[in-house]
Amino acid sequence: MADNIILIGFMAVGKGRTARALARATGRFAVDTDDLIESMVKMKVRKIFARHGEEHFRALEQRTADWLEQHVSATIVSTGGGFFMVNNLHRLGRVIYLHSSLEGILAAVRRHPNAAKKIAKRPLLRDMDRARHLYDRRLPLYRGACDTEVDVEGRTIDEVAAEIRDLIS
Ligand code: S3P
Question: How far apart are the first and last CA of the chain?
């Protein structure tokens, strides 16, 4: 098993920011699966969904997971909200689920100066009824898929990163 730290959780919960803070705190590199996919196909996630559909995007996530398994170790990996469904998740490293209520996530997004952009780039977050449905369906799946759950609601990114650093050291 590759000894990476894999951050999973719902859209906009702060996986990327936590990964970068954790990288700073541990001296490891951080990579993000959406960024890897965008650079692989030279297309934004939003456009991949619009042009090729979700199923194609999920196949790109699996290719990314296969590549990570073969080539990446000792790295902090932040993931897209559905990446945890890849078939080799646990061979990539220790899986940490960042948990917040949906209300907590949405309140944080709305407070953000770039709120509109944060929502626009996430095709599955644009329709709130759909987002609620997806959150309810995903919550038990995240809990079932992770090795460790970390509550992030109402906490700063640095606090969360410090807790994960202590967990993995
Ligand atoms: C998705 C989450 C997104 C991105 C894509 C699909 C999902 O990533 O991978 O829009 O299925 O939850 P973030 O979790 O970074 O928003």
Answer: 17
